[in-house]
Amino acid sequence: MNYDFIGFLNDESVMVLRGSTKLEIMDELIDRAAELTRLNRDVIYRMTWKREQMMTTGVGNGLALPHIRVNDIPQPVVIVGVSEKPIADYQSQDAQPVRVVVFIVAPDENPEAYLQLLGSVSRRLRNPELLAKLTEGAPTEAAILQTLRESAESAFMNTKTEELADKAKIDFGCFEEGCDGAVSFRLADLNSRTFQAVCPKCHRPYEIDGALKEKLDRLLKLIGSIREAEDILGDCFVSVNVAGGSVRVPYALLLTRLNTLITLNYGGRSVDFHLRVEPSSPETFR
Predict the structure, then answer these.
(1) pTM of whole model > 0.90?
(2) Which of 4, 98, 161, 241 is 20 to 30 A from 87, comparing alpha carbons?
(3) Could you tell me if 242 and 280 lie in one domain?
């Protein structure tokens, strides 16, 4: 199982912290942790401050990550608090005030979940843009939760799109008169700042302009959405009329294993692009 801290959040585990000192905001977090875990507040208090005395949990860039492991809870409890005011006395590693605090209370018998949760917080919230969005203006619980969930969905889709772009290949016929070369590239290559398509025969270079790149990016997202539904599409068929009757073609074969021509405007002309995308799993076509 993959333990991502955002998956453990709900309306009750997101807070706007009203305190102005480390002690005040920690008291708010400990109160909420006692409510959600139904553990004795004094136990959580002592364990939290014992951990804090060993080493500060202010990891820098406005983020703090207090965390403890306890007995007698079935699954981790994660609380995200965004402070209305910068907490200057948190004693972070970079000596900067804290604005975002993620408090993790994890089962002692599941150290793997504990480590994965800590890693997911570090991975997601080390992003300065996300931290800035969480703290801008007057934060509300609903806005904090929505921002975190949207960031998780965006990260998931970006990963899926990058994986798909690496497998999606496209080519078109060279424009040079008398050249029968095919200019070929991966959609993943478009993300490189130095990308340039080149004919392998006459070596004519091609710049992919912004409008065409935007269309190819949208096409890639469409293919990604189709990929997500492969388990459903594998059971669907399309009836295609042919001479003497009709043929049932797997819908997934048509849309997931794309091997077709698409016509787009490029360089002031209509160009046929040959697009090929292999299925993500051989089990798609059974």
Answers:
(1) no
(2) 4
(3) yes
Task: State the residue range of the domain holding 63.
Answer: 5-160
For residue 286, is pLDDT > 50? no
**CA–CA distance, 78 with 238 (Å, rounded to integer):** 47
- For residues 85 and 42, state if they share a domain: yes
pLDDT of 232 > 80? The answer is no
3-class DSSP assignment, residue 234? coil
**Same domain as 183, residue 60:** no
Tokens representing residue 285 in the block: 């076509």
Token pair of 115, please? 């480590």
pLDDT in tens, 66-102: 999 998 898 999 999 999 999 999 999 999 999 999 9
What's 74's domain CATH number? 3.40.930.10
Q: How far apart are CA 61 and CA 97, in angstroms?
A: 8
Task: Tell me the two tokens of residue 225.
Answer: 């959405």
Q: Give the closest residue to 6 by CA, choosing from 83, 119, 121, 112.
A: 121
